[in-house]
Amino acid sequence: MRIISVDLRRYLWSDGGMSHILFFHSAVGLDDGVHAMAQTLRDAGHTVTTPDYYDGRTFDSAEQGIAYRDEVGFRTLVDRVNEAIEDIEGPVVAAGISLGSAMAQRLGKKDPRVRAALLLHAGGEAKPVEWPADCALQMHYSVNDPWIDEGMPEHLLRSAARAGARTEHYLYPGASHLFADPTKPDYVKESADLMWDRVLGLLTDLDES
């Protein structure tokens, strides 16, 4: 497993005012990569919950994971997420990787406990949507990522910005999809370090506000 080396010392605070982050896995399930990314947030002092909406299943490829998603149905996965987090008190930050971004995005739109949605390697809407003004939105993906649907991120970003929400959009070089997952061939250290710097910066701002 590769080690994420972003300098976390400047994000550590002693007043206990850190975020509770719901961190949702990608289509391959709650694997070692998700745990490594969640640990980066924990090392910065945050509480991280990693709901397993695949019921313990992990897959070796995105194609296998997507086949399972389609077999079970997205609605069932959403129901599993809702059940897993129903007793968690807010405020929280919803974050997700790839498919997990869809879960984080949905919570950002609909769940009043969520004060920020962090969408890593995915995100977007087919048309403008209602976005709450008090929920920050931050998106990260590679500029040539083949899994990103043209135009859909812009619909979401404009919806959040028009609502008055803090809205941040970051593009990274290349076509790597899971570039911040240190266990995947897609991993790009330079992009991952920069992404974490931006994510932790937003979380610090939230915790100070």
List keywords for this structure.
Rossmann fold; 6-stranded parallel sheet; globular; disordered N terminus; AB_hydrolase_fold
Structure notes:
- The protein is an alpha/beta fold and 209 residues long.
- It has a single domain, classed as Alpha/Beta hydrolase fold, catalytic domain (Rossmann fold, 3-Layer(aba) Sandwich).
- Helix content is 38%, strand content 16%.
- It contains six helices and six strands.
- It has a six-stranded parallel sheet with strand order 2-1-3-4-5-6, with helices on both faces.
- β5, α5 and β6 form a beta-alpha-beta unit.
- The longest helix is centred in the last third of the chain and has 20 residues.
- The chain is globular and about 40 Å long.
- It starts with 19 loop residues before the first strand and ends with a helix.
- 38% of the residues are buried.
- The N terminus is likely disordered.
Share of helix, binned: 25-40%
Structural class: alpha/beta
Q: CATH topology, what is it called?
A: Rossmann fold
- Count of domains: 1
- Radius of gyration over C-alpha positions, nearest whole angstrom: 16 Å
The first-level CATH class is given as Alpha Beta
**What strand order characterises the main sheet?**
2-1-3-4-5-6
| Counted beta strands | 6
Total helices: the number is 6
Largest sheet: 6 strands, parallel
Query: Separation of termini?
Result: 35 Å
Described by the principal axes of the CA atoms, the overall outline is globular
β content, as a range? 15-25%
The average pLDDT is 90
Could you state the CATH homologous superfamily? Alpha/Beta hydrolase fold, catalytic domain
CATH architecture: 3-Layer(aba) Sandwich
Order of helices and strands: EHEHHEHEEHEH
Unreliably modeled segments: 1-17
